[in-house]
Amino acid sequence: MSLDVDIQATLGRFKLDAQLQAGQGATVIYGRSGSGKTSLINAIAGLSRPQSGRITLDEQVLFDAALGINVPVHLRRIGYVFQDARLFPHLNVADNLDFGTRYADASLGKNHRKTVIEMLGIGALMQRRPGALSGGEKQRVALGRALLTAPRLLLLDEPLAALDTQRKEEILPYFERLRAQGGPPMIYVTHDMSEIVRLADHLCVLRDGKSVAQGTAEDVLADPANMKLIGVQDAGALITGVVDHHASDGLSGIRLSAGMLFVPRMAVTVGTSVRIRIRAQDVILSLSEPKDMSSQNVLPAKITAIREGASSGFAIALSCGTDRLLARITARALAQMELKVGQNIWAVLKANAMPPNAIAPS
Ligand SMILES: Nc1ncnc2c1ncn2[C@@H]1O[C@H](COP(=O)(O)OP(=O)(O)OP(=O)(O)O)[C@@H](O)[C@H]1O
């Protein structure tokens, strides 16, 4: 699958001017409230019509302002899951599921329906109406309804935003499974970093209606130039490792290319590959190897870039074995430590700075 979007739209006083390239897997659109995320995916779905630009999905032109092409919503074969499920209240789950299949490829038939219902664990809910479902169940049905149309692409607009933490945990594994099992490519809107760690292959950052950064999630998050865009609270790189052991003192050891990382005990088996978000503000830099610290996590690193960030802070990009880290330090620390690109340094990471929602099987 390849999606190519380059559109411009004026919505009241808001101007959207976005470019997006997406392929297989999950592409997360990340941005603050009002940055244009919903407007962008509505245009991809065909729910709104941009003033200019072009949208192509694989070889098909879905929209081209100059050529006057605008394929109607129901012929785009794109599934859409809204934040608030939007099931038909007067129809039971079975009828809600079948509603979208009117335009779907009939040859997919009953087997596809059965697989989707089993995958989402909604078989027991078939006769219930949406009013008798929990928020998490509603979202599973909404996802099922979208999948039953055999979409070429799935658009998900903050599908977990209306759910509490427990319900989010109930639904996220379904998205992870879809991604792992080669389900339809997803464009997934969120401003929740933990969902990015769990799902994002690619990341596109929107700001004030403009796509200001995009690429693999690892590249976008490790780039010190993007620290301001992501926000100093959330900025941080993704690293990968393999669960090496679970210690009896409540920590799990993760083998990284540059050494061992200790995190609060993880509920995954030894040998599992994981992706971990290390927030820039949780990385401390030291010129010499710290030996008498409470932190268990001291990794050798090299400075690859130094970039001025927001509010007198600097973003320091580090290579750490084959991984990248991002650290945020003050201008004073930068001057006192006389940090330079190319310098070898030690990165200190607190185990408690890596809560379970910052770690996901990769
Ligand atoms: N039809 C419209 N008419 C006028 N303004 C609009 C219209 N649609 C969207 N906007 C404005 O465009 C801006 C972007 O809205 P959009 O819903 O795309 O943002 P978002 O990033 O999805 O926000 P959120 O995270 O809060 O859902 C907002 O300021 C919104 O008020």
From TrEMBL:
<keyword id="KW-0813">Transport</keyword>
<keyword id="KW-0067">ATP-binding</keyword>
<keyword id="KW-0997">Cell inner membrane</keyword>
<keyword id="KW-1003">Cell membrane</keyword>
<dbReference type="InterPro" id="IPR004606">
    <property type="entry name" value="Mop_domain"/>
</dbReference>
<dbReference type="GO" id="GO:0005524">
    <property type="term" value="F:ATP binding"/>
</dbReference>
<dbReference type="GO" id="GO:0015098">
    <property type="term" value="F:molybdate ion transmembrane transporter activity"/>
</dbReference>
<keyword id="KW-0547">Nucleotide-binding</keyword>
<dbReference type="InterPro" id="IPR011868">
    <property type="entry name" value="ModC_ABC_ATP-bd"/>
</dbReference>
<dbReference type="Pfam" id="PF00005">
    <property type="entry name" value="ABC_tran"/>
</dbReference>
<dbReference type="GO" id="GO:0140359">
    <property type="term" value="F:ABC-type transporter activity"/>
</dbReference>
<dbReference type="InterPro" id="IPR008995">
    <property type="entry name" value="Mo/tungstate-bd_C_term_dom"/>
</dbReference>
<dbReference type="Pfam" id="PF03459">
    <property type="entry name" value="TOBE"/>
</dbReference>
<feature type="domain" description="ABC transporter">
    <location>
        <begin position="2"/>
        <end position="233"/>
    </location>
</feature>
<keyword id="KW-1278">Translocase</keyword>
<keyword id="KW-0378">Hydrolase</keyword>
<keyword id="KW-0472">Membrane</keyword>
<dbReference type="InterPro" id="IPR003593">
    <property type="entry name" value="AAA+_ATPase"/>
</dbReference>
<protein>
    <submittedName>
        <fullName>Fe(3) ions import ATP-binding protein FbpC 2</fullName>
        <ecNumber>3.6.3.30</ecNumber>
    </submittedName>
</protein>
<dbReference type="InterPro" id="IPR050334">
    <property type="entry name" value="Molybdenum_import_ModC"/>
</dbReference>
<dbReference type="GO" id="GO:0016887">
    <property type="term" value="F:ATP hydrolysis activity"/>
</dbReference>
<dbReference type="InterPro" id="IPR017871">
    <property type="entry name" value="ABC_transporter-like_CS"/>
</dbReference>
<dbReference type="InterPro" id="IPR003439">
    <property type="entry name" value="ABC_transporter-like_ATP-bd"/>
</dbReference>
<feature type="domain" description="Mop">
    <location>
        <begin position="292"/>
        <end position="358"/>
    </location>
</feature>
<dbReference type="InterPro" id="IPR027417">
    <property type="entry name" value="P-loop_NTPase"/>
</dbReference>
<keyword id="KW-0500">Molybdenum</keyword>
<dbReference type="InterPro" id="IPR005116">
    <property type="entry name" value="Transp-assoc_OB_typ1"/>
</dbReference>
<dbReference type="GO" id="GO:0016020">
    <property type="term" value="C:membrane"/>
</dbReference>
